[in-house]
């Protein structure tokens, strides 16, 4: 397992490394900086005179949850978000005709016990592959404001090849979309939505805490165990993440090994081709359907279009 900083490796080689657990760190490039700037503008527009890292000192948790529930979709659906991601992929040598991404999210991690559920869900250690992400998914993560080791995200590399007893067998992506996803803002004090968690104690250390400048982006496999660091900094962390898959990996079923994921459904229909924002071809998507899409009334007619 390696950490590559500013690597000039081709995207094909890079993905091979990522599927073996390596992490890539890319210093700021123009489109990444633009994406961060857009997020900053939207955050600051939503907060008015409130200093973003100090939001917890000024707003009640309820006011904050309400503000975030407006801000977050605005960023996700902003036309410039997609444009800048396309730019980031191009600047890092990804083939825009073969690379598919999902829309970027803004995440917040608050200090102390301020707001840790629903819209600001504090992620316990998890693999995205417990949440129906395919094994070829690559996660991209970047801070919107400066972070420190006390409010960043963390990867737990010793679990790469080590299975964890977990609740992923109870998770189905279509079911989650149907029942739980859209009411995140209602979960201010506690989150009763069922999410896959480790069913055994986790050895958090050794941890790789990812600390970097604004505009720097990390790539890591969706199969890595990762978490939100308990925020002891006194400052709210704002970050952006999105995910990609490459058509060749989808088609050839390349990806990280599955050590312990047992969820059903797939997020595969969410990704958009960087070149024209179209979905994966139906034949490719069909490789990942397991029958649960019809069980939960998932609109398969819109899948693969
Ligand atoms: Fe995650």
Structural commentary:
The chain has 305 residues and is α+β, with helices and mostly antiparallel strands. Helix content is 27%, strand content 15%. The protein is built from 9 helices and 11 strands. The protein has helices spanning 11-18, 30-47, 55-58, 61-77, 79-91, 173-179, 247-252, 282-286, 292-295, and strands spanning 3-5, 23-26, 99-101, 105-109, 138-143, 153-155, 208-210, 217-221, 226-228, 237-246, 272-273. Strands 1, 2, 3, 4, 5, 8, 10 and 11 form an 8-stranded mixed β-sheet that branches. The radius of gyration is 18 Å and the shape is globular. Mean pLDDT is 90; it is low at 301-305. The structure holds fe (ii) ion. Fe (ii) ion binds at residues 123, 126, 128, 226.
In short:
With 305 residues, the chain is of the alpha+beta class.
What's the SSE pattern?
Answer: EHEHHHHEEEEHEEEEHEHH
Helix/strand-derived category reads alpha+beta
How many strands? 11
Rg calc: 18 Å
Shape: globular
Task: Report the portion of residues in β strands.
Answer: 15-25%
Distance between the termini: 37 Å
Mean pLDDT across the residues is: 90
Largest sheet: 8 strands, mixed
Low-confidence stretches: 301-305
Hetero groups: fe (ii) ion
Portion in helices: 25-40%
- Number of helical segments? 9
Show the helix and strand layout:
Layout: E1 3-5, H1 11-18, E2 23-26, H2 30-47, H3 55-58, H4 61-77, H5 79-91, E3 99-101, E4 105-109, E5 138-143, E6 153-155, H6 173-179, E7 208-210, E8 217-221, E9 226-228, E10 237-246, H7 247-252, E11 272-273, H8 282-286, H9 292-295
Parallel strand pairs: 1-2
Antiparallel strand pairs: 2-8, 3-10, 3-11, 4-10, 5-8, 5-10, 6-7, 6-9
